[in-house]
């Protein structure tokens, strides 16, 4: 039965395995070039500029894509057909009529595919993290939503979660194509909603309030309806900035001046607007995740994904034993 499961699965495994091997080869061949660039660059800005101008930029994007796309691919082409194809064609009955229990039949299929998923995703993320480490050490942006999903152990969690979603959809729908469509929708939604919604709350973020420095502004301007937008720079290298709001001393959001004249286009100089805003003693209310929470957030998000995958797997086992005929 194990051999039969492998024969049915080997084409998908070989295809994705080839992509991962190509990525590993490209990373191995170019890693020394990244290290050399860092050693000869006289500043972080020069190093990052050279990386962005060379082929390393394309490889960086390709590596991120390879780590972000496999969850969808695994869920759609590995998970959804794994059981749905058997139920759709009725070939599952042949195995069950040969003294093979449903639980064993499903466990063998699930175990092999899950192991392959973890190995390929793990190899890709370890290799890419090693290759990109000189860039990460300078750019200090591993916590940013897109980069975070292509580092550490989170890609493995997403891949196993997508596999569980695909298998569950295939069991419930018993049709391969509809199961694929549902898997794409669910996995893509989670890949968007979790990084930009739930991730920041997995560990309560830091909330701090500092005085607004009028000499260090990121943005200042006035809209056509009289609103004055002022955003101060909050420098914390490597932190993930979740929100940066300018507030009054009483904590309420700053929206406009009582007398907007100094900030109108008729004002003599921008200094008049800056002086009027500075006289209000405004503050910055900043919410962020500090850089030392990279691994705690990785563990929290991966744990969440694996927990959901585990629940879906238990549901699949139960459904197969109780509902499938």
Mind explaining what this structure looks like?
The chain is elongated, with a radius of gyration of 26 Å. The strands form 2 sheets. Strands 1-5-4 form a 3-stranded antiparallel beta sheet, with no helix packed on it. It has a two-stranded antiparallel ribbon with strand order 2-3. It is mainly alpha-helical and 325 residues long. It has 2 domains: 2-204 and 292-322, no CATH class; 206-291, no CATH class. The protein has helices at residues 2-40, 44-53, 55-68, 70-89, 92-96, 102-139, 145-148, 154-173, 176-202, 270-278, 294-322, and strands at 206-211, 217-222, 228-232, 240-247, 283-289. A hairpin with a 5-residue loop joins strand 2 and strand 3 (228-232). Helix 1 crosses helix 2, helix 1 packs antiparallel against helix 4 and helix 6 (102-139) runs antiparallel to helix 8. The mean pLDDT is 83.
- Gyration radius from CA atoms, angstroms: 26 Å
Query: End-to-end distance, in Å?
Result: 20 Å
Q: Work out the helicity level.
A: 55-70%
**Proportion of beta-strand residues:** 5-15%
Give the ordered list of helices and strands: HHHHHHHHHEEEEHEH
Would you count the extended β strands for me? 5
Average pLDDT for all residues? 83
How are the strands of the biggest sheet laid out side by side?
1-5-4
Overall morphology? elongated
Q: Tell me the domain tally.
A: 2
Structural class: mainly alpha
Tally of separate helices? 11
The main β sheet shows up as:
3 strands, antiparallel
Which regions have little confidence, pLDDT < 50, spanning 5+ residues?
A: none
Q: Assembly type of the shown chains?
A: single chain
């Amino acid at each position: 039965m194990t051999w039969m499961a492998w024969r049915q699965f080997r084409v998908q495994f070989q295809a994705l395995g080839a992509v991962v091997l190509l990525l590993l080869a490209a990373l191995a061949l170019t890693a020394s070039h990244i290290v050399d660039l860092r050693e000869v660059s006289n500043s972080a800005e020069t190093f990052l500029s050279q990386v962005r101008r060379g082929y390393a930029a394309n490889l960086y994007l390709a590596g991120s894509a390879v780590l972000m796309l496999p969850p969808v691919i695994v869920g759609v082409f590995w998970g959804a057909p794994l059981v749905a194809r058997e139920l759709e064609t009725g070939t599952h009955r042949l195995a069950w009529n040969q003294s093979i229990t449903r639980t064993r039949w499903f466990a063998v299929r699930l175990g092999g595919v899950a192991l392959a998923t973890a190995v390929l995703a793990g190899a890709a993320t370890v290799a890419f993290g090693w290759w990109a480490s000189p860039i990460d050490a300078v750019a200090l942006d591993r916590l940013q939503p897109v980069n975070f999903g292509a580092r550490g152990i989170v890609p493995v969690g997403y891949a196993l979660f997508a596999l569980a979603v695909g298998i569950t959809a295939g069991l419930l729908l018993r049709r391969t194509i509809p199961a694929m469509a549902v898997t794409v929708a669910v996995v893509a939604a989670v890949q968007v909603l979790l990084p930009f919604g739930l991730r920041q709350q997995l560990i309560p973020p830091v909330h701090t309030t500092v005085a607004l420095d009028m000499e260090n502004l990121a943005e200042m301007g006035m809209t056509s309806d009289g609103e004055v937008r002022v955003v101060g720079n909050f420098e914390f290298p490597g932190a993930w900035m979740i929100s940066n709001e300018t507030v009054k001393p009483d904590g309420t959001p700053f929206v406009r001046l009582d007398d907007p004249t100094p900030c109108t286009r008729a004002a003599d100089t921008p200094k008049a607007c800056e002086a009027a805003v500075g006289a209000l003693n405004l503050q910055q209310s900043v919410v962020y995740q500090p850089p030392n929470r990279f691994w705690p957030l990785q563990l929290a998000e991966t744990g969440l994904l694996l927990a959901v995958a585990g629940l879906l797997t238990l549901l699949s086992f139960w459904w197969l034993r109780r509902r499938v005929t």
